[in-house]
Design brief:
Largest sheet of chain B: 6 strands, mixed
Order of helices and strands of chain B: EEEHEEEHHHHEHEHEEHHEEEEEEEEEE
Strand order of the largest sheet of chain C: 1-2
CATH class of chain C: Mainly Alpha
CATH topology of chain C: MetI-like fold
Strand content of chain C: under 5%
Oligomer: heterotrimer
Shape of chain B: elongated
Distance between the termini of chain B: 28 Å
Structural class of chain B: alpha+beta
Chains: A alpha/beta, B alpha+beta, C mainly alpha
Radius of gyration of chain B: 24 Å
Largest interface: A-C, 84 and 86 residues
Distance between the termini of chain C: 30 Å
Number of domains of chain C: 1
Number of strands of chain C: 3
Number of helices of chain C: 24
CATH superfamily of chain C: MetI-like
Strand content of chain B: 25-35%
Shape of chain C: globular
Number of strands of chain B: 20
Largest sheet of chain C: 2 strands, antiparallel
Chain lengths: 360, 355, 536
Amino acid sequence: MSTIKKASVTAAAVGLGLVAVTACSSDSGSKASDSKSVTLVTHDSFNVSKSVLKDFEKTSGYKVRVLEDGDAGQAVNKAILSKGNPQGDVFFGVDNTLLSRALDNDVFASYEAKGADLILPQYRLAGGEKRVTPIDSGDICVNYDKKYFADKKLAPPKTLDDLIKPQYKNLLVTENASTSSPGLGFVLGTAAKYGDDGWESYWKKLKANGVKVVDGWEQAYNEEFSGSAGGKKVKGDRPLVVSYASSPPVEVLYAKPQPKEAPTGVATGTCFRQVEYAGLLEGAKNEKGGKALLDFMISKKFQDDMPLQMFVNPVREAAQTPELFRKFGVTVDKPQTMAPKKIADNREQWVKSWTSLVLK
Amino acid sequence: MTATRAKSGAAGAAAEALLRLEDVTVRFGAGAALDGVGLDVAEHEIVCVLGPSGSGKSTLLRVVAGLQGMDSGRVVLGGRDQSGVPAHKRGVGLMFQDHQLFPQRDVAGNVAFGLRMHGVPRAEQAQRVAELLDLVGLPGAQKRAVSALSGGEQQRVALARALAPRPRLLMLDEPLGQLDRSLRERLVVELRELFDELGTTVLAVTHDQGEAFALADRVVVMRDGRIAQSGTPLEVWRNPADEFVARFLGFDNVVDATVTGEAADTVWGKVPVPEGTREGTCRLLVRPAGVRLVGARDGLACVVAARTFRGTHVALQLEPLGGPRLEAACALRHAPAVGETVGVAFDSGDVVVLG
Amino acid sequence: MALPVAFFGVFFAYPVAAIVARGLKPDGSWRFGRITEVLGQSDIQQVLWFTTWQALASTALTLLVALPGAYVFARFEFRGKQVLRAVVTVPFVLPTVVVGTAFLALIGRGGLFDELWGMRLDTTVWAILLAHVFFNYAVVVRTVGGLWAQLDPRQEEAARMLGASRARAWRTVTLPALAPAVAAAALMVFLFTFTSFGVVQILGGPAYSTLEVEIYRQTAQLLDLPTAAVLTLVQFAAVGAVLAVHAWTVRRRESALKLVDASATVRRPRGAGQWSLLGFVLLTVALLILLPLGVLVQRSFDGPDGFGFLYYETLRSADGGAFLVPAIDAIGNSLRYAVVATAIAVVIGGLAAAALTRRAGRLVRGFDALLMLPLGVSAVTVGFGFLITLDEPPLDLRASWFLVPLAQALVGVPFVVRTMLPVLRAVDGRLREAAAVLGASPLRAWREVDFPLVRRALLIAAGFAFAVSLGEFGATVFIARPDNPTLPVAVARLLGRAGDLNYGQAMALSTILMLVCAVSLLLLERLRTERTTGEF
């Protein structure tokens, strides 16, 4: 008996050593606390051109580590949970639907990025908020399948009001507001447009007009929508989908060969504006590096690069909109907007009402 | 057969004992599997521990092998106390009851196992394996799968495997237990000859007295974790120490007796006892050979209850008018039929007073 | 024993306990009132009810469909069996987002059922159940089939000689012998379906919600930690109850089995009955597994200019793609993570199984059950737990790549333990003693005796752990990681973007993932049979 015990102890010691060695070696490899590197915590959709990032690394002397932490909601929540002992130096990707929660939890340290004065006024936060800096914006809008409407000789819808008209019955697919970010944005847009009292009756009509709800953007856009590349393959039968204003140019960009015209269009009167912010994390180990990274994110270079990397609009004055967007995209003049505070206060209640109204 | 081997010394000569057990006790729960056992095995001696199942004989082997811890006592091998020496460093061989050949290795892999563990060079291993397979009568079986071997062949491989590292002491646990009778009788002779030839020191356990008597220089009978009797096969056969040993050896003619002078009073009538028997009450054994058939009126009258043919003789179950049944051995030609009434007389030479 | 306990303590129990405590003890005092409050809500009750019954129904259906498969794979010899066995395991490792898409081709709009019978099952509960069968088919085939192949057919023959009908002989002899394996498979399937996330979302639509989805929503979206904590506890309670039932049935049934070499029980099917059974199983596999997988492959080649390798070629370029690195790099990342995760799972699981074999008692059985818990606990709970616990040196692993394989290993360990335990228990202790007496130290005895006997099981276990970590999505996305996406993460990300190329590349990467998985499993199977024919 004792010999057997000894054997398992030996084996355990060997195994423990193994794990310890791997853990240590990996640990030392990933130490980010030295002043030579700066860590950006962000969500899964973050992207930047390699050359642009290299450029920053060269001029600033910092090596950038990008840490992706799940979808936007999850990334923000994790930043909140790890406040004071953050995983990195800068956080990017908190949008107006989540901003209040992050600010209320004191995740960010105050810092006014160099060049903040060049940010377009419509993106600036009320009260001169210094803890976060707007980086990009995007619009959640209904997209339509151009071919469908041309074939049917039907004018595509333009506004939220159009969507409840009988000629568009059973054409729209949207996403679950409780799990999908465009789904939530669309609901917030209706709330902004019809007010606290009116949005529910709007949805009642929308439901009566045959709106379909699926769980995520992927299913809505790639499976149900008839205008997308994926939807065409699987014979999607909904010509209207809640997606982004940038989706048509993206369809063009990722098509080979490039078509002359985008296969889809945007109903510009259905849009809700999303703005994404970045901020210096409270307790950042490399505060100086973090500040430099924030400055970089609203620099012309990054702002010019961003649209084609993340398919969003720049927030900086005179930043160049890429040709692709100008040619195939639309400008949304009067999107619905809502103050972050109001979103934070009502979000849960609205989603609850929406769920029982539309899904049950 | 039993006493042909030249012994290097009297059994129990302390100075020369290769293996010595001193007051070994092993407890499982409330009961003791070994209860203060002391035993010496001299070099080149073959000792057979005999006992019914549950008498603690397998535990004895496991204690010596180091597979089983002791509650108290000492195991001394070649003059060295073995406490704290793990099984793989004791240098003893053990052949398991059901062989325990390694199923995933072939015959050569099994036999060479111990050699590999002792770092014997490859070429030497192969040579020794061939040698041993010759010795156990399986030449050229190296590449055979153990699952394809018959019981007897497996037993031979197990033996070759145990012998391969030249253990100081070879222990056999029911070596022939699972084999059929004729094979067993042949193998026991072969084993005896082999051990004589190699001069191996052997400690074997078995529940089969025939096997023990054929194999051993000395027989140790165990009962409930204690040693009931120890001696040469002949001594034990002739003079079982007590009724347990007698009955274990297959002798069932045991009765209460009161000795007066040269005879004893029993329910079977007067039975002559050997000279010099102490007077008083005792238990008395009459070996079947000492139960002589006489005319129905000349002795104790019995009815023949059963007859069993035993090859060289016939074993009779006799029902006397009073007292327990008697077993008698008689020649084939004179055997009475079942139901006949016969007379019985006793020979003092086959009467044993039990302790 | 010490190492597995430490591993589970540090990387599972502590993080999960911490996140639950954060929810229920927000300011230093416990708020157990939340429990009744949350459980009192009718929508939560509905979620609970649905989660439980769909898991039970899925488990039953999977067993029903897959048990004949287990028999066929165990007992029949037919061409392409090895490849097929690897292929049926593929769904198990594919990310749900991909599989959901493919599965719609079977049961959704314009799918096979729709074309043939005008039947659409998407957004019905049937879609969820069938997809669960699709996912877990291999679990049953492998766990049950492995044992079935080694059951001595003479036992059943003996029963038939004693006058039992074929069905009766099966019920009275084979089924009880198989019971532990069936129970183990059922347990795994239940745990997987109980915590189902993607399948329910994609195929069931937003009307169906499981506990797992609700925990995700409360934690990752709403940051309502108290509610999430209560739901996690509920999940624990449910999983614990199932584990207890499992342990109880297995203990009652566990008996020494006479096992024989698998190759001895395999034969070509004979007679109309056996051929039609084989045909039925092959048809099920073709319809339920090959067809959806085939659709993925077809889509990966179906480019704008007809069939071609366009999507595969573009995987190699980094510019304009969804990543900082070429998408093709994801293959290397996935393999690297999978190797490390498998190594951890095999070391931890192997030690745990060895410890469990050599000891008995209530405590050990409790540990046995504990090892299964990670399968029944939400990945988001573990991921968030990691964040708030592994944040101080020397265990500040939050930003380390090592955390990903570690989390994957949590899922792999139960497989290793489940597969190794029965075999280790079957190794005769006296073989070890025989080796010891012949001069083998305990470690050497393990290597010489146990290892060759359990190598087969170890390889199967390692294969499962490898496949699981290759396709692992949940734990991976809930952990912060540097920009080296695994295949499933890359696929999900590509699908999250508009455009033909992205969609096509997602299909191409999925096909590659399938291929990598199938090849790894096949290699393993090869390795296994080569060795075993040599030594068994």
